[in-house]
Amino acid sequence: MMAIDEPTRHELHQRLDAVLGADEAATLMAHLPPTGWGDVVTREYLDLTIRAQDARLDARFTQIDARFTQIDARFTQIDAHIAQIDAHIAQIDAHIAQIDGRFDTSATAVDGRFERLEQRIDALRDEVLAAVRGELIAALSQQTRQMILAMIGTVLSLAALARFL
User: Fold this and answer.
1) Binned average pLDDT, 10 residues per bin, the chain of 165 residues
2) What's the confidence (pLDDT) of residue 75?
3) 119 shares a domain with 55
4) Burial letters for 79-93: b for 16+ Cβ neighbours within 10 Å, e otherwise?
5) CA distance from start to end of the chain
């Protein structure tokens, strides 16, 4: 079978005009592929393309699952760190309670000093917790952005493939 080029198509159209008439020739030519059957996609090619895309998606989801595993491990570390901070704060609180117990009989001025000390420790604890929370929120925001972009890319890829089916 010979390849059909534009001059050959034009000759065929002129011949069809002469035999069938202009409208019928245009209708028949509109049903022919623009550059020949060699450029038409086969089901086998589509199946191979879809399988390859599925493999890429599977690999990407495997990477995403691995990333989630890493993130879960990081959360576990953060939880352990927060537990240590809470334990330290509990120790500080217990120590302050001991100091308060020893100086209950002290003058009002001494009690005022310890109260200010407790306030500073509480403020420091709040700052530490706020800093940890801020880092956690920033990490979650970054991860969420990455996941959303990955999902959008996947959906767009699937939508593009769906147009060819």
Assistant:
1) 72 90 88 65 87 95 95 94 94 89 70 88 90 89 92 90 82
2) 93
3) yes
4) eeeeeeeeeebeeee
5) 28
For residue 31, give its domain range. 1-40
Q: Are residues 129 and 63 in the same domain?
A: yes
Q: What is the pLDDT of residue 152?
A: 94
Nearest to 162 by CA among 78, 7, 57, 49: 49
Tally of domains within the chain: 2
Q: Report how far residue 3's alpha carbon sits from residue 9's, in angstroms, rounded to the nearest whole number.
A: 10
If DSSP states are collapsed to H, E and C, what string results for 32-83? Answer: CCCCCHHHCCCHHHHHHHHHHHHHHHHHHHHHHHHHHHHHHHHHHHHHHHHH
Measured distance CA(143)–CA(95) in Å, rounded:
40
Q: Are residues 34 and 46 in the same domain?
A: no
